Amino acid sequence: MILTFLYMVATSIQSRRILFLKNHLRSLFQGDTTSYPSIMFYNKTLASNKESNSPINDCENDEFMTSCLCINKSDARLEELLWYYDDMRLCTIFPQQKVDISSWLMYQYGKTFFPLHINNRNGTLLQSEYKLYILVEADLESYNPVAATHATKVEDYGLIITWTANKNVDLIIESDLDMVAKFFIAAMEGQCYINNGLLLKRIETVLISGKPCLYNSDVLNLPPTKKFIDKDEWRMHMEKLKSLSDTAKLASEKCKPFEVKDLPGLIIYPENAVTSADIELMKRVESNETLESECRSQVSTPVSTTTIPQCEDQLSQDEIQKITEGTTKFQGVPHSASKSLDMLDNLEDVSSSISTRQVSCSDIKSTSKPFEPKTFYDAKNIKRTSSASPFKNSMAEITTKLSKKNVKPPNVLIYADSFIARNNVKNVLEESLGTDKYTIYVLSPEEARNDAWIENAALVVVCGNVGNEIGNQIVEYILRGGKLLALCSDVIHILLPSFKTAEVRENELVHFSYGKWKHVRMMHHIFCYQASPVRTRFSQDHEDIKVSSVSPPASVSVKDKKGNSHSFDLKVLGTEETWHTPSILLATLPESGGKLVFSQIHLEVDPMQYELEESKFNALKESNATRLEIFNDLLKAHLQMEIRSSSQKAAPATYTPAFFLGRHELKVQLLERLKDRMKGGDTLKMPKLEIQFCKSSTVPRPASISFLPIMVYQCPDNFSTVEYFENLTTKELGRLVIYAEIMTSSMDIFNGHQLEHGLAVIVRQQTQGQGRGKNIWLSPKGSALFTLQLHVPTDTILGRRISILQHLVSVAIVSAFKSLPGYEDIDLRLKWPNDIYAGDNVKIGGMIITTYVMSNLNICNVGVGINLFNKEPTCCINDIVTAFNEMYQKKLKMISHEQYFAIVFNEIERWLNIVQSGNVDVFLDAYYAYWMHTDTNVTILSTSGLSQNAKILGIDDFGYLRVRGEDGTIFTVHPDGNTFDCLKGLIAPKFK
């Protein structure tokens, strides 16, 4: 009770102090604005310490009257002493002090650790009456990390506008009477440590003039993202602050941009040397990072040098509420026109007062830098959800749990020295692994020499000779934990160098045993590899000679490219029964988990290959089932591959008819337009597929891999046209649909033909899904697959840069999901150029776009695949939603196929309209909000074969990556077409 009473008394006293001070301040701001004083709190403690320890200059000696930064400091006179205690005082200064902020730096919201640790929040809206600007000074040398635990947060008392640093760090904060009174009271009560544990020197109300400098903060290496850093780190941070401030002074004095000497790539722009493009660029950086702080919506027009601070264009309370709730719509206007997001427009409309200038080559490095927003957008209203969302941190846990060990569809790579061997290996792998879980690729020699595949292979199978160059790449792969199956290959010389060769007769049938499989008769490699001694030949079948070979060593040593040795453990798994030479070997690298299975038996060979040699054919046919069992056991037991069971082995694909969906008149119109191009009036011949539009009287022949009958007047049993069209709001896209249960690829219907703008082909399962380049797209049951044909005039905004269409569609897919209530927090991202990810590392979708020009139209076929219900090969959207619901006690609904297709078509049409109407910046804002490559480093491969590291900056007008090289040069690069990771290696084009 006593404590409660004392607390009430203290609260009452505090309230009376604030009220008294606020009323007194209000009385000071009455009448003619020229008669206003400056109110200043000053902490003399720092000056006293310096007087005792070190000499001070004249300016520092006079600092008790006003700040040295005030342009009329020589006129300052003490008018009224309002309060004092020890070395602290609160007083009024006449005349009102003025600060020119032209050589200061714009404070960038979103950069919560630069220049100080800021929470970027302000829970109370600023009052429109009696708006004030306060100068806050703190001593940089006074850093005390312990004091930061109870420091006063300057952001709690207004909006930070601009900053500079020399011996002090100085901030200009927009505030109001209520906030200023609270700040003064806190300082008077001894709360004199502010952010980062710096000792407060001064709070002073001032007038401001000029506009601060801008800078591209993306190249800054920010201090550790925490309040408490050690003094050595703080000293480095101080030097960075001072270096920026010194460069800003120089840039303001010389009226042109300057690069910060110690921070390559960081450019300071004075306000009188900034182009309109620079302003738009900086505004996008600022505005896209600001709405994570509610206080951004409270910015008003700054005070001039002759008037009281007033908000001339105050937002209504309703507008403020909408912005703070993240629901303000852009309504088709460019992003830069949104007043509530424009710090620069609020600073006396900088963009309207700056003349344009020609940009020199030296300016390109900085002015063409794309913005890199860090917030996430909703589709309909482009809501912003803070990237610090509590859901985001656990998305990695959700996706990792769901995807188990596969963050991308696992690749199985084949390298063979002959066409027959390659097909044999591919066939047996497809039989063992299936095609729903793994993507199986054949490596060309050029691809094998590149290292892009190394980090993206679950298994590599080699057959035959590989040579030293490719062999060394395979060694690197094993050293990184890779799994290798070598079938009768010379790669054993490189990986197991102690093994020698002995010539044998070609096409030798031998008996060997492996595990439970005994006396199996199969084809042996032409060479017999063994440790020693060297044998010249195998025994003949009729020879009854038992020869014991020397046992292989228990371990072998292999050197990497740098000459470091690595020890493999060696084990014999299978033995040839005549000479007792090892026929199947297992080598394991304990340090990385890398494994090699080497077989001297042709486990890949189909008996049909020997059908003309009766004795061999009969023997191999008899042991064929055993061959497959051994092959599967090696994959499963020693290489940790998932083998599909006999129950999972699907029967050959049963192709089914498709269905033509949509309004009757639209279907009739399309068929009429196609009539002259169709054989017999109803059949279109495509390069890979023949399709027939079947009316009620048509009796079609059965669907097959090359023929697809389309039922014009029937509906499918497993696709709800009611749900689909109820969710569809487009004018053109998706209004006509060809729906098929199973076919080769949805792309095949459009191949080579202009059919209809907005026509969609939806397929439940594909047998030959296509990906980027020669990639294979896995299409298991449950995935959502479609191809959409778009006709884009070549003389339009998008038509002239049609290559950005893939980015537009990517944005549409993500924003479609985020348009659903509650889905805003599902962390979906974009990987350049055309992949959809959940979180940072789990691929759940992708696309392929083929384009050809006909007359004045770009005919674009957009193929998209998303994991919607399928748990393999990684994880799917609805499993993520289920896990999300369980973790956060949410009740998000599952997304049906019909709903998904409808909302995606809605969003593609919406984003097409946004871009075609000229609002490219709105699209780019959303793209950068979703993408995952901010500050990512890539390797650039020149046409001469040289490479350099570079940092990704963004995309150019055509969707290619813009990067900054090690020498600071900014240029554009494009993917080299490799099928494994387009960011692993990039080739720079000839132009820069």
Automatic annotation (TrEMBL):
Lipid biosynthesis as UniProt keyword? no
- Which domain of life does the protein's organism represent? Eukaryota
Domain (BPL/LPL catalytic) ranges: 722-916
Q: Report the source organism.
A: Melipona bicolor
The record's listing under PROSITE patterns reads: BPL_LPL_CATALYTIC
Q: Which family does it belong to?
A: Belongs to the biotin--protein ligase family.
Q: What is this protein called?
A: BPL/LPL catalytic domain-containing protein
* One GO molecular-function entry: biotin--[biotin carboxyl-carrier protein] ligase activity
Assigned GO CC terms = cytoplasm
PANTHER family given in the database record:
BIOTIN PROTEIN LIGASE, BIOTIN--PROTEIN LIGASE
InterPro entries of this UniProt entry?
Answer: aa-tRNA-synth_II/BPL/LPL, Biotin_CoA_COase_ligase, BPL_C, BPL_LPL_catalytic
One Pfam annotation reads BPL_LplA_LipB
Keyword annotations for this protein, in alphabetical order, are: Ligase
